[in-house]
């Protein structure tokens, strides 16, 4: 492994060198130690724990009865496996070349973790939307996870190899060009940069055929319906004259069906909500105080997150059609921490919230965190946000190659903007340069890692087949 420094600095907010020239020089110097072509390297080191053993190591901190759902979702395809395998990839990336230039990394920047949601100003924006693994770390790791996810998604869709490679290289090139663009902007312009859905729709209209323009319009229109009232209609039913969360076991289990005679879990969740309130600014507390908690349910979410404790909280304001749905999601250490060192936040919920605010152009007004002592017998960290607030996501499985290429380019731009907010964008831009050397190197990495991912997926299927792993399908 070639490295400018043996371990990245633990914070992404360290002051950069004083002048633009010094910062550019730092980036160019990194090329001499880690040539851009070196990022094609993808070799799993001998003696390293298997991917399956790393996944099984995570079981100890998860809800036991949900583990079979996690493995069932990961077993569906190489792409769903990849979505759940952030820890194995972090272990692999730790053995790849690193420039030592640190940003607030997402830690799980695969293509399905980008999407639409509402800004506080009620604009529909496109951004990264999952920060469970965020941690200061190498910028290259996020780029490689995004690139590998595009290669793997393209294989799942049956795209030819040449079209897959064009998609991946175009996304990495979009990242490189965007970092160079942001390097020339003042810091405030970088901070205010945002991808608004309506502007994207207008910009892409000339590049999309009629049916794809309509598909984009449907995705945007559908996002507007995924709000708190939509969640009420989707997840609740009237019980004794008041809305209550409807049971859909094992994916949605109301708290009343979980606790039985035991009130510890119920009391712990009430404490979560009360303590979380203090993490909000005063004006947000005033808004939250207009709602009262009426019901709670455990909800299974995502792929890699399955088994972590996640709860949906239904609050009501002025009547039964004034709902607020919050999601309280357990936060543990980032998968990056083992390889880059601990960050500066002792509370993992705070780590997620601070990382999200650093990387996103606009964040949920109810985003906050809490630590609860004695929750189900243990101390646990949570972060909270609205369950749905104009959320929209692309249907990757139905995309044609041209659509995936444009979507990958948008994700590359978005990731570059996120990194430019916290890292030394001038040094990274100088390292990347104006040519495509880095783009093609990461394209080679993505192909090799997709091969490795397929082998790891087959290992999981074999473990399910011989009974070493229990998996439930269709959930």
Describe the structure.
With 475 residues, the protein is an alpha+beta fold. It has 2 domains: 20-223 and 393-465, no CATH class; 227-386, no CATH class. Helices cover 47% and strands 16% of the residues. The chain is built from 19 helices and 13 strands. The strands form 4 sheets. Strands 8-9-10-11-13-12 form a 6-stranded antiparallel beta sheet. It has a 3-stranded antiparallel beta sheet with strand order 2-3-5. β6 and β7 form a beta hairpin. α7 (161-183) runs parallel beside α17 (401-422) and α7 packs across α18. The longest helix is centred in the last third of the chain and has 29 residues, at 437-465. It is globular, with a radius of gyration of 22 Å. 47% of the residues are buried.
Structural class of the secondary elements?
A: alpha+beta
Strand order in the largest sheet: 8-9-10-11-13-12
Low-pLDDT segments, ≥5 res: 1-10
| Anisotropy-based shape | globular
Number of domains: 2
Q: What proportion strand?
A: 15-25%
Q: Tell me about the biggest sheet?
A: 6 strands, antiparallel
Evaluate the radius of gyration.
22 Å
Number of strands: 13
What is the terminal-to-terminal distance?
40 Å
Summarize model confidence as the mean pLDDT: 91
Helix content: 40-55%
SS field, number of helical segments: 19
Protein topology:
Blueprint: H1 20-33, H2 51-57, H3 67-75, H4 78-84, H5 86-93, E1 102-105, E2 114-118, E3 124-128, E4 135-138, H6 139-156, H7 161-183, H8 187-192, E5 195-196, H9 197-204, H10 210-225, H11 228-235, E6 236-239, E7 242-245, E8 252-254, H12 255-259, H13 264-277, H14 282-288, E9 292-299, E10 310-317, E11 319-330, H15 337-340, H16 348-359, E12 368-375, E13 378-386, H17 401-422, H18 425-432, H19 437-465
Antiparallel strand pairs: 1-4, 2-3, 3-5, 6-7, 8-9, 9-10, 10-11, 11-13, 12-13
């Amino acid at each position: 492994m070639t490295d400018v420094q043996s371990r990245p600095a633990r914070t992404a907010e360290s002051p950069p060198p004083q002048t633009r020239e010094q910062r550019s020089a730092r980036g160019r110097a990194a090329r001499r130690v880690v040539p851009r072509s070196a990022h094609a390297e993808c070799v799993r080191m001998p003696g390293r724990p298997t991917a399956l053993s790393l996944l099984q190591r995570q079981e100890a901190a998860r809800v036991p009865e949900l583990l079979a759902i996690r493995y069932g979702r990961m077993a569906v395809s190489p792409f769903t496996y990849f979505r759940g395998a952030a820890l194995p990839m972090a272990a692999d990336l730790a053995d790849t070349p690193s420039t030592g230039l640190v940003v607030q990394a997402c830690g799980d920047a695969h293509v399905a973790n980008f999407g639409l949601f509402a800004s506080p100003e009620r604009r529909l924006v496109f951004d990264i939307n999952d920060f469970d693994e965020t941690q200061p770390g190498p910028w290259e790791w996020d780029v490689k996870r995004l690139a590998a996810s595009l290669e793997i998604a393209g294989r799942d869709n049956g795209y030819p190899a040449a079209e897959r490679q064009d998609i991946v290289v175009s996304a990495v090139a979009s990242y490189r060009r965007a970092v160079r663009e942001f390097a020339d902007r003042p810091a405030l312009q970088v901070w205010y940069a945002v991808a608004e859905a309506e502007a994207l729709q207008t910009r892409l209209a000339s590049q999309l055929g009629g049916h794809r323009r309509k598909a984009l319009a449907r995705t945007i229109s559908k996002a507007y319906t995924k709000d708190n009232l939509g969640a009420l209609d989707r997840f609740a039913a009237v019980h004794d004259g008041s809305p209550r969360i409807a049971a859909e076991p094992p994916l949605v289990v109301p708290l009343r069906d979980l606790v039985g005679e035991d009130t510890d879990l119920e009391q712990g969740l009430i404490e979560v909500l009360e303590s979380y309130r203090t993490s909000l600014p005063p004006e947000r507390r005033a808004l939250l105080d207009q709602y009262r908690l009426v019901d709670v349910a455990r909800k299974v979410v995502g792929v890699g997150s399955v088994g972590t404790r996640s709860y949906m909280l239904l609050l009501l304001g002025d009547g039964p059609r004034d709902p607020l749905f919050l999601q309280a999601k357990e936060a543990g250490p980032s998968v990056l921490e083992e390889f880059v060192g601990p960050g500066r936040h002792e509370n993992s919920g705070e780590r997620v919230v601070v990382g999200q605010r650093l990387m996103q152009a606009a964040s949920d007004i109810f985003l906050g965190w809490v630590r609860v002592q004695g929750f189900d017998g243990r101390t646990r960290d949570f972060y909270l946000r609205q369950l749905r607030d104009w959320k929209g996501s692309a249907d990757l499985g139905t995309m044609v190659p041209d659509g995936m290429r444009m979507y990958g380019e948008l994700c590359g731009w978005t990731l570059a903007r996120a990194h430019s907010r916290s890292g030394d964008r001038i040094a990274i831009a100088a390292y990347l340069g104006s040519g495509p050397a880095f783009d093609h190197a990461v394209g080679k990495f993505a192909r090799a890692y997709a091969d490795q991912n397929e082998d790891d997926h087959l290992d999981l299927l074999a473990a399910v087949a011989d009974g070493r792993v229990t998996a439930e399908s269709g959930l």
